[in-house]
Amino acid sequence: MVKKKRSISVIIPVFREADRIGETLRHVQEVAGSNSYEICIIDGAIERDTLDSAEGYGAVLIGSTSGRGHQMNVGAKFAAGDILVFLHADTRLPEGAFEEIARVLDGDASAGAFRLGFDSDSFAMRWIAFWANVRSALTRAPYGDQVLFFERKFFFNIGGYREIPLMEDLEIMTRVRRLGRRIQISPLRVTSAARRWEQEGKLRCTLRNWAIRLAYHARVSPYVLAQWYSFGGEGDDGD
What we know:
This protein is of the alpha/beta class.
């Protein structure tokens, strides 16, 4: 019996990504190939400049208030796919990603992610990616830059993302794990932008992120952590 192809919604929360969004959309379209898919762009900037730049690509364009967890929940509500994939605008999917996502969720996993890579060949960035992947393998709680994906029904059954200012990705995956549901990390690698580490300094950025993660596990409020994080410059949370 031939399995029906799963429909996939790629949800991309954005905030002032007008210069990058066209390249991101072309990349997703290329990787998707003949798969059944849609792309939902959720712009949290009041100017809606990213939505203007995304016109003409066939994506679902949605305005929202800012906050990544909130934006992703809004995108999920608009999305029509059987599978929800949450992609950062500066992350690139591996070849065969759509087939791999369907394969993972056709098994006994309720959620999944990819291994992490960066668009830099420097030793420091390879070291950061290596330890990020070790941590994910041990904790089964990958971060958002590893491209989290879920069965649609399961995502809504657990209430989606918590709308907190930081660590919403760690929170949802920890919740999935505590529910006893399987999270599978694919051996395929995504490629995430290294610009944050290069701008802020690789050691400084890594140590700050470790400190914030440890504080989160010590139950420091995400609202307090967001204030700490803002001292290190703009960017996404993660390893």
